[in-house]
Amino acid sequence: MIEFNYETEFALDNEAAISNWISDVIVSEDKKLGEINYIFCDDEYLLQINKEHLQHDYYTDIISFDYTIGNEISGDMFISIERVKDNAVDFNVSFEDELRRVMVHGVLHYCGYKDKSESDVVLMRSKEDEKLAMFHVEQ
After folding, report:
1. Residue 64 forms beta bridges with which residues?
2. How far apart are CA 1 and CA 75, in angstroms?
3. N or C terminus of the chain with fewer C-beta within 10 Å?
4. Name one GO molecular function term (predicted).
């Protein structure tokens, strides 16, 4: 089950398409969908989580809490809409594309992909691109 929660004025206009896509991504990695919660928030909300849970005092676009057990993918992903908007401008991509990249990035972490080393980052970006290509609005 995939749920979308909003702690800011933002709301997805295509929850069903996003949910179907995330489910397809999980299946494409030979995993099973457990429970994934996306929580969309603002910078200050996510900064507070970053400070309280990770002892980091800086803004970020996503913080994910992984509850995956075996092949069943589960977790909570907190996404700052403000950071995603800024990053979209910085990377010269649409807000929608950057948001989907962040959303699938968290799922790929749950599937076991890392982004600490240079080679991990290259693989993560490749996987993100592969999974973004799976998204279709009319699902």
Report:
1. 77
2. 11
3. N
4. zinc ion binding
For residue 139, is pLDDT > 80? no
Number of domains in the chain: 1
The answer to whether 56 is annotated as binding is: no
Contact of 77 with 62, CB cutoff 8 Å: yes
pLDDT at 17: 93
Q: Is 30 annotated as a binding residue?
A: no
In a domain, 17, yes or no: yes
Is residue 138 situated within a structural domain? no
3-state secondary structure of 132: helix
The pTM of the whole model exceeds 0.70: yes
- Contact by Cβ (8 Å): 79, 99: yes
- Asked if residue 105 belongs to a known ligand binding site, the reply is yes
Q: Which of 61, 118, 129, 115 is nearest to 90 (CA)?
A: 61
- Say how far apart CA 20 and CA 82 lie, in whole Å: 25
Q: Enter the tokens of residue 34.
A: 């457990």
- Give the structural domain span for 59: 2-132
Does the residue 139 lie in any domain?
A: no
